[in-house]
Amino acid sequence: IWVGKLDGLVHIDLATLRVSRQDHWPGGAVTAILPIQNGLLAASDGKLLWVADTEVRSLLTFEGHCSRLMWDEADGAWLGTDQGLLHWSPSKPDRYLETQTPPERIRQPDPLAPATHLGNLIQGLAVVDEVEGPMLWVGTPKGLFRHDPASTALVPWSYHPIDGFSDVQSLASAADGSELWMSTWDGGIYRYAPRTRYRQKMAGVSEPILALSPGIDGTGWAIGPSGLYRTQGAAWELVLLESQVLIGATLRAVAQSGEREVWLGTSSGLVRYDPETGAVQSPVNHAFSRPVNVLAYDTISELMWAGTNAGLFALRRAGDGWLR
Hints:
Elements: E1 2-5, E2 8-13, E3 18-20, E4 30-36, E5 39-44, E6 47-51, E7 56-61, E8 66-72, E9 76-81, E10 84-89, E11 92-97, E12 124-130, E13 133-140, E14 143-148, E15 153-156, E16 168-173, E17 180-184, E18 190-193, E19 198-201, E20 211-214, E21 220-224, E22 227-231, E23 236-241, E24 251-258, E25 261-266, E26 269-273, E27 280-281, E28 292-298, E29 303-308, E30 311-318, E31 321-323
Antiparallel strand pairs: 1-2, 2-3, 4-5, 5-6, 6-7, 8-9, 9-10, 10-11, 12-13, 13-14, 14-15, 16-17, 17-18, 18-19, 20-21, 21-22, 22-23, 24-25, 25-26, 26-27, 28-29, 29-30, 30-31
């Protein structure tokens, strides 16, 4: 089995369950793969690549995000991208085919038509204090949306033919609650001021971010394929590698409950990270060992909310761990 990941291409031998990768294989985000007769096609970092055991060849460079691949022995490769349908063959120049509306672009809908804003996966939620009051922001693969609880209106906020953005992977309100932090498929973390629509890419992160969370005293936390990031200003720094957490565990979520307590949601449960010493520990008593996908800590009720494949859990502190 071939698997395309955010940090590259891997191969799994089903007989031995051995996972392997080669140095010459793609190392960036692999968004689509397709086995063909003499190798494998992979879309990675804006390139269509032909991958073999000992060789990788770049076939073409394209714009946007490729999510689907199809191969025709007589006519070459077809790429489904957020810019439209792209065709490539060895004998003809690559070309985009005109589509009515690029898949990931949303415009203001017909007021008489049924609401279809959220016909895609919700990947992030955040509340920002604005002049009109608290507003809910929703991140989806189709972009960023603003929801006004008073009017129940849900408005597409991110579409613009030149500098718009789509495919919001993660979303959080900044530590002071006045702006948004968000990450898109292109990678990195952006500061976004809703009132002015000013967007600025923050330094220190180039990869896609899976989770964002405000911390204590202006601190922010983020989870990426490489590990845990922290910010205390305009830049982010990698403070903990995923390999330093637990053997075989994958980082998925983060929430800070105290000055020296940052809880990491992993595929093996909750673990505690001490920002001062860098120590990572699993609770000895009352460990929560279900795979955790999302985390949020409520400072008022002192509850830790954990989203898992088995549902949502409200956890209360007990000893050095958490109880349901």
